[in-house]
Specification:
- The chain is mostly helical and about 50 residues long.
- About 80% of the residues lie in helices and about 0% in strands.
Length: about 50
Amino acid sequence: MRKVSWPNRKELITYTIVVLVTVLFVAVFTGVVDVIITAVLNLLSQLGG
């Protein structure tokens, strides 16, 4: 079994920022898709009667 190599402080900060930016991007993307799908379904509901 290999020895574990922990990231240094600079790497840790970099990885943390990458994770936070990725999570923020996915959250915003999901929110935008949700708004678009909701608008389309509302439009279809109004057209359908």
